[in-house]
Amino acid sequence: MITGYVHTVDHMVKFDFDATAYFEQASLEEVINLAQGHWGADCDAGHPIAAYFIKQEEPQFLTFASYLAMEEDLEYEVVIVEKEALAWLLSKLNLELEILNLGLIEILNRGEKSDEENLRLLAKNLQISLTLLKKVSAPTTPPMKS
To answer: Taking all residues of the chain, what is their mean pLDDT, rounded to a whole number?
Structure first.
């Protein structure tokens, strides 16, 4: 489970939710964007997680959207528990890397490619793996509140 928290700046609407469904359907780029935003953001417009759950007609988020519609220019914050999100993301990356490696092993075992082509595929696989791991393991610094 990936725990999330939502609250309006006036704290009239606040609740916890399970953000896992959002993460399951999000692209890796969308998840990395959340990570680079320190897993949370003050919003005065649509937040991708809030928008997803509103579209899914999640009751808490529908109440939240109704309240936002009544209050002009009301800001809110969506925060994801970083430790849970990183654990989920690392498990997904490990699975994707295993799939990439199995695909490469299958190609190598078929012997359909020349050694040079196999080495090129291996290098590309390693480059993708390293890029993903660097993005996920980069240290995050919480944003400063003004």
So the answer is: 77
The Cα–Cα gap between 35 and 49 comes to 13
Based on the fold, state whether residues 52 and 106 are members of the same structural domain.
no
Q: Which domain holds residue 111?
A: 90-137
d(CA 96, CA 135): 15
Q: How high is the pLDDT of residue 129?
A: 66
Residue 71: partners with Cβ closer than 8 Å, 6 or more residues away:
8, 10
With a CB cutoff of 8 Å and minimum separation 6, the contacts of 5 are 14, 15, 16, 17, 77, 78, 79
Residue 72 covered by a domain: yes
Please, are residues 81 and 16 in contact by the beta-carbon 8 Å criterion?
no
* Predicted TM-score (pTM) of this structure: 0.64
- pLDDT at residue 88, rounded to an integer: 84
| Count of domains observed in the chain | 2
The closest of 3, 40, 23 to 90, measured between CA atoms, is 23
pLDDT mean over 82-105: 75
